[in-house]
Amino acid sequence: MSLLIQEVSGIDAPMELLLLADPSEDKIRSYLSGSTCFVASSGAVVVGACVVQSRGTDTYELMSIAVHPDHQKSGYGTALLQWVIDFFRNVGARQLEVGTGTFGYQLAFYQRHGFRVTSIDYDFFVNNYPEPIFEDGIQLFDMLRLTLRYSSNGA
């Protein structure tokens, strides 16, 4: 698997991919301008994208990460997330944060990479989205906040 990951401007962010991770284009646009967007390509095909926002001098938040459905379960999401983890470790980040639903493959995905639950944002999905969001037929209500803390020995 050959994967090229590079930063792109918010204008060039692949909105159709980002909408797979966050169903609100308005919300994506609201955080895209103040964030860094990375795209992952295999050959000439963009297979994934993610958006990361600074939360202070040494804390960053992964706002969204998505892989095109035709390329899911191929290791691209894992490679992209690991690249982001390494990138922010190398720029001196103290921690990387992410918010996700309270169940499903996304939660396990982040936990496999060392993220740990640090808080719960109750009713986040019902208070911040006009339409209910369902995952595997179950409505999402609360957001789990997860944190990956870097250590000097390479967390």
UniProtKB/TrEMBL annotation:
One of its GO terms (molecular function) is acyltransferase activity. The keyword Acyltransferase applies. Its EC number is 2.3.1.-. SUPFAM superfamilies: Acyl-CoA N-acyltransferases (Nat). Keywords: Acyltransferase, Transferase. Pfam families: Acetyltransf_7. The keyword Transport does not apply. Residues 1-136 form the N-acetyltransferase domain. PANTHER family: GNAT FAMILY N-ACETYLTRANSFERASE (PTHR13947), LD18367P (PTHR13947:SF37). This is GNAT family N-acetyltransferase.
